[in-house]
């Protein structure tokens, strides 16, 4: 497993990060979750991503249990705060109260004294940015958080945080961004990526497989295969069906010969594609079975030729979304955002 420096920070992260959104505590039980994390460790993955809202805290608990036998300094644990963790008026957002309480709760669930990376899960339009940044900075000063990041923030929001942090004289600064990014969803390319490159902010991208669509297992004209996310219970089908469509599925099948030519699985091709982008330091994968972890982790270190990338772009063509406004539409914390939507 190769490692990369996270932006201009001193933190090294594995090229593949193991994440447990929509899996641990929801799609898979405890034993399967523990087996997946062991497979990640066996594959050399050292970076693990979760959030307080995943499975309403159960995901952090499972991850903490799985990593307990591991030397703490040998892994990097990232978690997030912002989305609703309860029904109270202060159980969401980026207020000082919610940040402090959520951080302490995450540390308890994870069974650790600190997290390597603490991320603002979304931008909070209802809380003053200086209140958020000062609360994060205090957690860094207390040693409970080592590095700070954001997720699904727009370029202007990231720039505002950088400018304000400098003006306030804060010791800590944003070093990581966690956006959705894959062959089909490239909305960070026009604005977010250029800003982050110049500011030294690294990208830890999620959904490199577009909810499994880029694995090629969803075939045009056929129902979702049994055991897939689209056929499961819970919230997973709601997320994945947003990206399913006959034309899209037909085009994705045209990528299969390219993967075969490169000696890769479809999943490995998609993950390696994200890792080739300048500024992307790690791709976050999820899994319901250990063998998926092993397969996807093998994308680390793969370098795709420019000719292959050109062929991929020609196949996907007008199905690729590059509109930077889509980030703003997806990410803002709205009044009344329920726990089920998180």
TrEMBL record:
CDD domains: Aldo_ket_red_shaker-like (cd19074). Keywords: NADP, Oxidoreductase. It comes from the Bacteria. This is Aldo/keto reductase family protein. Pfam families: Aldo_ket_red. Residues 15-315 form the NADP-dependent oxidoreductase domain. The keyword Oxidoreductase applies. Belongs to the shaker potassium channel beta subunit family. InterPro entries: K_chnl_volt-dep_bsu_KCNAB-rel (IPR005399), NAD(P)_OxRdtase_dom_sf (IPR036812), NADP_OxRdtase_dom (IPR023210). The lineage of its organism: Bacteria, Bacillati, Actinomycetota, Actinomycetes, Micromonosporales.
